[in-house]
C-alpha cells in the first residue's frame, strides 16, 4: 500500500490530471461510478485539503455530494495504492533492486527537476513473466504526457501500440520508426517525452512522470543499433525496418513483452503566473525549433531522421 503522504499526493495528482485533460471520459479510468465528471472535479479541492503534504486551505462549505464523491475517490486511490509497493523489495524482487540502483545513478538534476519526489514500484505482470521466460531482459524508460499516467498506472500498455481511441491517450505521433511502444535505455532521451501537467487544482502544483519498464527481448522488440531478434517458437516475426532504429531507442510491438515496474514522480509548485511564463517559454522554443528545421532543410544532404 502507498503509505507515505507523498505517494498519496502523486496518485491524486495523476487522477486530477486525467480529470482535467481534454478527454477526461477516456483518460480518467477507472473512476468512481455514479458520479458525473463535474462532481469529481468539485471533490478535488476537498481531497487535496485532506492530503497532509498540500498547503490547501479546506473549503468553508462542503456539499454532501462533494463529500461523498471525495470519499469515493479517496477509496479508489487507496485501492490503487495497494499495488504500488511491496514489503522486502530487496529480497522479493532482486531485479527491481538493480533497477533502483540504475535510477540512483542518473544525474536527474540536469534532466528534470532534481531527484524524484516519489518512486512507485509494481510487480511484474504475469503475462510478462511468461513471455520473459528464457529471454534476456533489460531496463528502459518511457516518457509520456502526465495526463496519461493514471490510465497507464491502472491499465499498463494495453493496446498502446495502436494508441486506440478507447484509451484516449495522447502520443499517436510517436511512430517515426514504426508503430509500437517507444522506450529508451537513455533516461535523458525518455525525459524529453515526459510532458509536465498544467498547475493542478487544490494547489497540487505541476507534475512530471517517467516510467521505469522491464523489457523482454524478442522478435517483436527492436533495440536501436541491434535490430530485432529472429523469430522464435511463438512464431513472431521481426520488424522489417529493424536496422533503421537509432541508438538508445526501443520499440515494442508485443505488449506482453514489456511491463511497467516503476514510476518516478517530480513535483513543483504551479501558479497562474507560472503557467503564463510557461506559455512564453514554449513560444520561444517553437521559434528556435523553426530556425533549426529551416537550417536542416536547406542543407545539401538533410538529416535522415527529424
UniProtKB/TrEMBL annotation:
The keyword Transferase applies. Coiled coil: none annotated. InterPro entries: ARTD_PARP, Poly(ADP-ribose)pol_cat_dom. Gene3D superfamilies: 3.90.228.10. Residues 127-223 form the PARP catalytic domain. Keywords: Glycosyltransferase, NAD, Nucleotidyltransferase, Transferase. It comes from the Eukaryota. Pfam families: PARP. One of its GO terms (molecular function) is NAD+ poly-ADP-ribosyltransferase activity. This is PARP catalytic domain-containing protein. It comes from Polarella glacialis (Dinoflagellate).
